[in-house]
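[Primary structure, fold]
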Amino acid sequence: MVRGARQPQQPRSRLVPRLTGTVEKPPRKRKSRTEFALNEIMSSGGAEDDIPQGERKTVTDFCYLLDKSKQLFNGLRDLPQYGQKQWQSYFGRTFDVYTKLWKFQQQHRLRTSETSYLNEAFSFYSAIRQRSYYSQVNKEDRPELVVKKLRYYARFIVVCLLLNKMDVVKDLVKELSDEIEDYTHRFNTEDQVEWNLVLQEVAAFIEADPVMVLNDDNTIVITSNRLAETGAPLLEQGMIVGQLSLADALIIGNCNNQVKFSELTVDMFRMLQALEREPMNLASQMNKPGMQESADKPTRRENPHKYLLYKPTFSQLYTFLAASFKELPANSVLLIYLSATGVFPTGRSDSEGPYDFGGVLTNSNRDIINGDTIHKRNQSHKEMHCLHPGDLYPFTRKPLFIIVDSSNSVAYKNFTNLFGQPLVCLLSPTAYPKALQDQSQRGSLFTLFLNNPLMAFLFVSGLSSMRRGLWEKCQEYLRKINRDIAQLLTHSRSIDQAFLQFFGDEFLRLLLTRFIFCSATMRMHKIFRETRNYPESYPQLPRDETVENPHLQKHILELASILDVRNVFLESTIDDY
């Protein structure tokens, strides 16, 4: 199923009266509900300072059209169930309003990857919880009302996950557990198993991280993996890079047996976080010295638009690709992230074209062999929902940045840049050492390196917990490593210019430095000894100047020494394989 959302949709004001079980108000008073919802949204967390007046008007207009469309649609039920002509005018009015609503959504793109909208949703859901709008539901013998309450909890949990409010998530999960237990005890309904599965999924989701960071009192520290102001290495004087910026991202997930919640796998969630900026309150920024003049007003930092596609069919995926490609602004980049099962070629072929190396499976509608890999040896036709490298050729007419996390990621090594536009593919290892504890259900190690490189480094070093003080010390050292990697890339004389074209964007710069850190770490690790254990890229990086650079290797060994795990790494990879 496709979740083509750039972010969760604006909370709808129609929920408010229904939560209390009150009678519907007359249509002429519907605007008051919209105003109430907007007041709840804007009243906390400094959201009003971050949302311009024009955008608030957009939300108000949207809510009005939404309420009007529902009013007309519900009115159709009261029409007589005979005759034909008397229906036509009512259908016409209803269709016209729905058409206006659809056009309004297309024009204003209410789902925009703006973190401020997530904060609004959080404020709205928090108000429902704090004011106990659902308090009377459990006293009524109406299971459909209880289901609405359970759905509210599920939506609230999704918003909190996306905002990285894990402490609130844990409280909500406990409350949801109690509500589900009460629901299953009171009503003998068919969806009891499904709601218990939802609870299991979210519990596994929040425990997916393989390493815990602990305070002195052993409480767990909630770490953020969004792009902070000091997150990406700064561009220093003399660094010559391109001026491209990341505008759109398609995050596609179809990994078997991987933990997920609400059609969001762990890998998808981690990549989503890696493509988000840490929220910045403009009001507090304006209070800083030297920021009083209007000319010094900080600019709003844009997040790339994102489509979250969970198990999309080929036609669905191509539709979203085409839409992003069409709307991509000038001097902008489209990022495609694929976390999916590998599809291997059926046998030897006389040619070696872009459809002869297999690809990745985006929709699992067939039997899976061994839980991970699709083999089509006994069938002459290719898998319908396999995304081959050749399928992406039309979109290389514009700058394209591809990340493939799959057991057949190497299929994308055989790319051809037909149009001369910047093109880079970052490819995961196709297999991991057997000695490494299998954590595939809790997310891919490669994606973890791109999202939280220090946590991934700790995991491959055999550590499962760490004190906060040491964590912060290692994070500071890792920032130094990233700065040095940036210098290695920009000073290299043999690196493909495509890497430098993307290096001007903060998100892509951080992904590239983390990719090189990941590759260098795995090449130095004692149990990563096979070629298929290492990440690769298209175009290839010059090894001696990047992933096998002695200066970078020295840094990795120093980080291992800080953690007292130097024994799991080689002193050098020179001539080792």
Notes: Residues 85-108 form the longest helix (24 residues). DSSP finds 18 helices and 13 strands in the chain. Residues 245-279+302-366+382-568 form a domain with the Rossmann fold fold (CATH 3.40.50).
